[in-house]
Amino acid sequence: MTAPATRTTNRLAPVALILAILVPIAGAVLGHITLRQIAQTGEAGRGLALAATIIGWVGTVAWFAFWGVFLTMLGAMAF
């Protein structure tokens, strides 16, 4: 009797998720790259890569929004 074949998880998927939390833009880009690799190879890890992509883009938008509001408020206080 043979053991069932197991799919390996793409090694970039958890890295992309960690990067999405620490450096959102890098995690988002790596998440897209990982999703493309998973589609080509059939590896596991699509959920991790998708989460990294979403968290990365949301974090990037939040980062820009924060700095936009902060700099606007700073400019308003100058007058």
TrEMBL record:
Alphabetically ordered keywords of this record: Membrane, Transmembrane, Transmembrane helix
Residue stretches making up the DUF4190 domain: 15-65
Spans traversing the lipid bilayer: 12-35, 47-70
Protein name: DUF4190 domain-containing protein
Protein species of origin: Microcella humidisoli
Phylogenetic lineage: Bacteria, Bacillati, Actinomycetota, Actinomycetes, Micrococcales
